[in-house]
Amino acid sequence: MKNHNPSGNKLHFASVTQRIMGTLVFVVIAGLIWAAWSGRYDAEVNQFASWLRSHWHALVN
User: Which top-rank group of organisms is this from (predicted)?
Assistant: First the structure.
C-alpha cells in the first residue's frame, strides 16, 4: 500500500489552536453571510460607520 505522506513520517493533524481558529473564521464568515442574506448587513455597516464617524469627529475636535 502506498504511503500518502512523501516524507515517510507519521501524519500530523491540526493542533487544537488551529482547529479553534478555523472554527472562529468559519463562524465569522457564516455570520457575514447570514447578515447579508437577512438584509441586516447594510444596517450594521451603517451603524459601524456612524460610530467611526462620531469617534473621528471627537478625536479631531
Answer: Bacteria
Q: For residue 40, what is the DSSP state?
A: -
Buried b (16+ CB within 10 A) or exposed e, 11-43: eeeeeeeeeeeeeeeeeeeeeeeeeeeeeeeee
pTM, full prediction: 0.54
User: pLDDT per residue over 3-54, tens digit each?
Assistant: 566 666 776 788 999 999 999 999 999 988 888 888 777 888 889 899 999 9
